[in-house]
Amino acid sequence: MNAPDFSSQRERMVRWQIERRGISTPRVLAAFRSVPRHCFVRREDWPDAYEDRPLPIGLGQTISQPYIVALMTDLLRLQGGETVLEIGTGSGYQAAILAVLAGQVHSIERHELLAEHARQALEALELRNVTVHTTDGSAGWPEAAPYGGILVTAAAPAVPGPLLEQLAEGGRLVLPVGPSGYQVLQVWQREGGAWTHEEIIPVAFVPLRGQYGWKEE
Ligand code: SAM
Q1: Distance, CA of 152 to CA of 162 (rounded, Å)
Q2: Which of 127, 135, 171, 217, CA to CA, is 20 to 30 A from 81?
């Protein structure tokens, strides 16, 4: 029996959840059309893989709502060829989207089990420009800095200073900041040795843990 390809569900997701909410960058839309999201969720969740909501991926973590993944990706304004850092690999779906849009992707996940599942999914799709590291990513990954873009997919108490330092000139950092129930998506840009920032929309993410994150409860 052939594996289902979900291409019509994926097209509906792009049109109705992403384009209709105002994301129009052709490269970003093409990336969401090309990456099979169901390959990053548990098999029992395949029927819901293209729904307009987050899904559980194990260990109390989630793959984010497609629109939020698209919005954060769009806010990075990638042109192609950049080295990009993601903190919070989770399922690996966001890393796969970044792999299509950037040159090299480093993605950090604190849970080895999630990191290993993500590596397998990325490998199966032959996305070889992503490296998944297992460690606390709250202080970034200085080994591959500077980055043209940094995405944090878990909510920090405040913007971690080392992430600002690891941005390349003109690079953008997109991250949710705040406690559970009161988070705002922020964008920071490095320009001429200084940083500017703006607030985008309220969001709801799992907490960033670790040195620059929230302490374990
Ligand atoms: N980007 C993911 C995707 O596409 O599926 C969704 C990420 S999920 C909302 C947030 C992830 O951040 C979780 O997998 C969690 O384990 C991870 N995380 C939280 N704190 C972290 C830290 N300090 N370093 C690395 N990963 C962290």
Answers
A1: 13
A2: 135
Asked if residue 116 lies in contact with residue 146, where contact means CB atoms within 8 angstroms, the answer is: no
Q: Cα-atom radius of gyration of the chain, to the nearest Å?
A: 16
What pLDDT score does 2 carry? 62
What is the Cα 184 distance to its own chain's centre?
16
pLDDT at 55: 97
Quick one: which atom of ligand 1 is closest to the CA of 90? 14
Pocket of ligand 1 (CB under 6 A): 61-64, 87-88, 90-91, 93-94, 108-111, 114, 136-138, 153-154, 205-206, 208-210, 213
CA distance 33 to 114: 24
CA nearest neighbour of 73 among 98, 37, 38: 98
The per-type count for the chain, helices as H runs and strands as E runs, is: 6, 9
Q: 54 by DSSP, 3-state: which? A: coil
CATH class, range 7-203: alpha beta
pTM of full prediction above 0.90: yes
Q: What are the catalytic residues?
A: 64
Nearest ligand 1 atom to the CA of 136 is 24
- Nearest protein Cα to ligand 1, atom 27: 88
Under a CB-based contact definition with an 8 Å cutoff, are residues 50 and 66 in contact?
A: yes
| Per-10-residue mean pLDDT, the chain, length 217 | 83 98 98 98 96 96 97 98 98 98 98 98 98 98 98 98 98 97 96 95 96 91
